[in-house]
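Quick one - inputs below.
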Amino acid sequence: MLRFLGLVVLGATVGGVAALFAAGFVRGVLWLNEILLISPRSRMMFAWPEWLTLTTVIVPALGGLIVGHLHQLLPERRPHTPTDAIAAVQTRRGRLPLKAGAVSAFTALLSLGAGASVGQYGPLVHLGASLGSLGARVLRLSRSDDNITIACGVAAAIATAFNAPLAGIVFAHEVVLRHYALRAFAPVAAAALVGHVIATQALAQGALFHVAETVVPQAWEFALFVAIGGLGALLAGGYMHAILGVGRFARQLPLRPALQPALAGALLGVAALWVPDILGMGQETLRFATIAGAFGSGELLLVLGLKVAATALCLGMGFSGGVFSPALVVGMLFGALCGTLTASLTGISQETFVFYAVCGMVAVTAPVIGAPLTSLLIVFELTGNYALTTAALASVTLASPIAAQLFGRSLFDIQLRERGLDLSSGRDQALLMDTRVSDYLTQECVSLSPGASLDEAIVGIARQHHAEAYLVDDRGHFHGCVTLADLEAARQEESPPRQARECLDMTRPILSPDTTLWAAMALLEKVSGEALAVVDDGVFCGVVYEVTIAHAYLDQSDTLRREEHGHG
Amino acid sequence: MDRPTAALLAALVSLWVLMASGPLVSAEPLRVLSWGGAYERAQREALFTPFTEQSGIEIEVARYAGGLDELRRAVTTGESPWDVIDMTRSEAMAACDEGLLQPLPPGLPVPAPDGTSAERDFIPGAIGACALTHTLFATVVAYRLDAFPGRRPSRIADLFDQQRFPGPRALQRTPAVNLEWALLASGVPRQELYRLLSTPRGLNLAFERLNKLDTIHWWEEGEAPVELLAHGQVVMASGYNGRFFDAMVQRGAPIEILWDGQVQEHETWVVPRHARHTQTARDFIRFATSTERLAALARRIPYGPARESAAVRVGRHPVSGVDMRLHIPTHPLNAEHAITKDEAWYARTLTRINDYFAAWLEARGDTFPAPAGPSAAASEDSAGDTSRHPTPDDPMTP
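Output:
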């Protein structure tokens, strides 16, 4: 009980620290946008407008140059994102490296400040997660508790940045923890609450979108909202694959990775000379997209396409930042396009225009981050408008499953799959796939020289109360496995073989140290025996007993069950 | 030592100085530049007369309608004709940047009667380097009560809704306030107005909204919208809340203020460079921004006092007995949807925004009553009198 309460207090503390960092980050981005002439207000107030053409190209390019070089400090040479936090929690590896967290947060601050078309919520989530992990490491907590503090940091970051505590709690559960346990709920809730309180005190900024509509859409419009969800899922898929595609393309580009963000920044700046809406997080664009008549349909299509391209360019070529804010803009523009088309086709008044924009927004964002409930809650907490939330629900109902079927649960999951971690079959499989048999290796087995005689082999095995032996020569090379039963049977033959190596059990598979527990389990379904030999490049390393594998599986399941179903 | 004793002592010291050293410097009157009309009357009752009674120093009042040209000229001659100026904060900010004003010493305003420090008692941003905000005035929309039978405008969007609220409108011939209202009517939250007005898209959206109004009477003189409304030439008009109050309450005009979307601005006291009586000017500012004096002013004209302690002391009008609290812009019921004018933004962008506005007016064919010419020509004949019309460069006349 005391321990549990301690965890709640720790959650609140992590939440407080993460919220302060998040608030500082948000303010830092705004400040940079002001002094670097990215925000429209600073551009308007700049005394020498004729210089703006130059700064628009140079600022993102220089920002990219610094960001690209800073990323060379990290072992992976890429910024860390929420994807890394999810992987750490899902594979129970916990511990997020502090250096990567700090560098990634700083480069994200620079990227956003210099006007790259990236999001700010991803870096905030990863920053919160890193701080949570740091808290657990300082206090030497267990892996399960580490996961909870990571979730606390994430929840607090979202709660602060959006000023939406419920969305923060649900996001931590839906995207990071991916299970619901009372044990985790209380600390996460405490963290989100602290984040919310700090947000209202420290960040007096307006919410992301105020909507003060009192109209209610007509019944038939809900059918359109569902359809927008379906189409939005396809757009979300296009958006995700554009980011991944540019990433793949960039790897083949004959340009040093450290210089690639600078190129992306320069291209972005040149494009922004004609369409300034694509610069930065695009909060003004977000607002305009909710206003009927602010864009023509052609303009909507143009800005939408360019925003997707700009985001793919910036993220694919190595700027640090999230995918959520650009997805918000893309989704809003898409919804606005649907609203404009509907109005011109049916001739209805544009009173419900904002409903279309918001439906488009959730239809694109929910699949990208794999969090339909969070998206809904963000709409609800930011607008306090129930009618709008039900419309968003209609849209997300179709968007999330379609995108999950076609593309994957989220961009994070697709990225992890590309890195070899498949979360699509649940966490237990991911865990087993992430554990290597080398962790369960033992030398306690009977090893014989390949030249041993049958009698020697039989006696050797029986003396040690085993049923099989592994033939290893003087140089440590593995020759195969013999079982007591086979040896006995061979001895009863009319012309028994002279050496043990002639009785090898050919059906027995061998493992490499890198074989995952998941693969080993699959092999066990086909063979029966005592243990499987682990061989590294022909050299015998030891064996893994089948009982050990079974135990490991049961252990893992048991820990997960306790983590996911325990309440204190 | 309480204040009357201090004043007595000061008077005795002055008397001694007078006898010892000939002509007395502080016997000269303090020269104040203010806005005239009902506002000056209220200031005279609440500030000027009590100051003279307390200090023995006469106050001489000159009138202007905003603008910095006179001050610029005065500063270049090395001789300011005024010691204290009542100035809008956006102009005060610009004047301070240009070095036309004297910095105010820290700790100038007195604490609240309950001991709360001035820094905590004044509203945020009131205490500037060269300017001390004393009141907040608002530009609001007012409408004729008899114009729309069975309904009343309740949101600023109704200003642009000529289907539900038919009839001509009167608007100030400036981009300021009109652009804000046009975006507000498009559903932009007031926190985002200036960010969006900074984009061509936002400006276009605002001008498109203004374009949908079929008849606009453009006004420049602060009294004009009140007259247009009172005589029924328009059914809705923008204007200063103090003047509408005056017409409503003192003259019984059938009009009502729509507080939604009111645009609040700071009105400040400043001391110009080369003022002859700097110390007396500071003494006057200290006196005029005390809790008691601010409350006394707000009891006579409904502008919001810049101090919390004064806001809670605003009571009834000394003559008509009207509860003034309900009429000041900062009253919570009135201020719920108030826009705080981004004065820094205007200070930097006014020329460009004015150009857009002039171009739009021309495209619309609404160049009445006068072309938006440079302010120098207009101010030639207007050294400190009320006859001068404000030019687009100095549009704020509370």
